[in-house]
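Project standup — Tuesday

K.O.: blocked on the structure for the chain from last sprint. Re-posting the sequence here as requested.
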Amino acid sequence: MVGLDLLPDEARAIIHLINTPSASGPYNLTAPEPATCKQLVKALGKALGKPTLIPVPAFALKLVFREGAQELLLCSQKMSSARLEATGFAFKHPT
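H.V.: unblocked you, prediction finished:
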C-alpha cells in the first residue's frame, strides 16, 4: 500500500476529508498558490508540443463557446483552499 505522504495533494486531500468527521459540504481542491492561466496554457502547450505564442481573444472564445468559454476556457475561477486548510490539511506542494 502506498503511504499517504507519497500521494499527490489532491488524493491526500480527498482522503483527509473522508477521515475528518467535521468536514461536510463542498471543498475546493486547489493549491494555496494556484497557477495563473498563462502558466497553465504554457504548460499545456509544452506538453502537447504546440506553440502558445498568440493568445486567442476572449471575445472570439465567447462567440464560439458562449457561456462555456467563461467557465471553462478563460481561467476566471477564483478559488481558495482556505476552507480545506481550516480542517488541518497541509499541502506538500502549495504552488
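K.O.: great, moving the ticket to review. The chain has a mean pLDDT of 82. Residues 37-48 form the longest helix (12 residues).
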